[in-house]
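P.,

For your records, the input lines for the assembly:
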Amino acid sequence: MKLFSLLLLFVINNCLADAFCSLRDPVSQINTLYPNHESYLSFVKKIDNETRKIVQENLANNDLHFGELGQHTLYVVIEKQHVVGYVHVRSEQSDWGLVEIVWAIDAHFKVVDFTFQRCRSPEKAELVKADFKQAITGRDFEQLKQYLAKDGISANQELLSKINTNSNLVNVVLRCALKTLLLTKVVWHDELKRLVHLKL
Amino acid sequence: MRLFYAYLFFFLVSLPSVVLANWTDNLRWSIDNSARLNINNTNNITSRNYFMGLDTHKIFNDQNKDIGYSVVQLYYTKLSNQRPFPFMFRHADDGQFIVREAHYNFLSNRNNLMPNIRVGHFTLPFGLEDSQDTNGRLLDYGHGKNLGTKLDWGLLANKVHNDFEYKLSYSLGGKDDPKSKDGSYIITARISTLSHLDFNFGFSVYKAKLDSKERERIALDMKYHFYQWTIKSELASGSTDDNDVNYWLFELNRFSLNEQWKLYLQYIFEDKHQKIQSDQKIVLGTRYTPDNHWDFSMQLKHQFQHPESKDELKLLQAQLRYRF
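Structure tokens returned:
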């Protein structure tokens, strides 16, 4: 029995609560974010408790939702044999359940754009407006982190002064962007390094 | 015979990428275990079902792009006092290895109209089940009952465009056997708005010769998410041989903020021409997922005016599932 338990621990795998046939690639979202792309390359990596610790160390008072553990995909977007960016879908808990955001990131790990894959909040229309997108695009992890208030989970006055909403969804999207940039760099580091033949 | 050549063609085309692939890269796998208890209060039968299987998902790519992905799910399923028992079992206490989904999806170039081609054993693209997978769950959209089978062996063209997505399949009608039986075939298609949107609307058609019966269906389905609530509905109409069949499902569900709890209520109406009275069912269910491994579900199915027994059917089901 002990041997069986040991074996079980050894093979334990971070998986999805639903069967894998329910997985869907964000094809139309990639089309929207990179309208001229020709193809994409998927890289599946595990996000586990070690990764969770990295998030907690780099973003105080933040954590990953249990649904965020498991195997996740980074899409490397290709145009004319070159990498034009990365796409990653990440979810964040909000007042209306999980918000799923599809992020476009450039090769220097800066936010290029985003689109909601799932958002039940009535405030989402405010966040796809130009002022908010202008405020967060072109920024890397450290630059975006400057928008965090001292509590580590909400937006500070610097960001709020640039946009026309102080909705709680702003905090959700900001936290999601920070986690996405951090995880993309940390978790997929080796895979992205191997893509030298496709670099810009 | 033509389908056999198509299989052979796709097998040969995919062979290099499959054989030369690094099998551990981009591979998701899980051991999926569940135990289900069914208490039927109408005929006082209590049955149990046990499932243990391997669920895999593997993406294949070359240096520049994804070229396809496979889904393979092989389950050992054991029945205990299951009456009536599904067609693939020999008796009420039988145990069998069952292939659920087992297919390879060839991805076409993004910038042309050529569809992706799926080959293998797949869920028929029809109605709500197409956008909401219920594989291994108590939640059900009557897919198998309405179409005669939930899965079949064949070919399926599919593509997601910027504003819509579609699937079109031709399959053999052998259900779990990759062959045609007595001229059986199934043609199924669904076109819909993008399935990730808050409002999703789909139109499906189905034509088949299955179990020596001619079957036809058309269906409209929709789902709408608002806040923590979701409304789903499917309206199907058609015939089995010369008998008209109409089917309507309505579902209202709500999840908790952290999405660990889900509660759903379904109303199902089925009207068959040769039956004096229509079937009406209410299903009340809940699902609790504390983490990525455990899943506990329970549902109560109440069928009014059960056509065979003239009695009401009350079925209580509970399922514990663990994936690792």
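Two observations worth noting. The domain at 2-323 of chain B is CATH 2.40.160.10 (Porin). Chain B has a mean pLDDT of 90.

Regards
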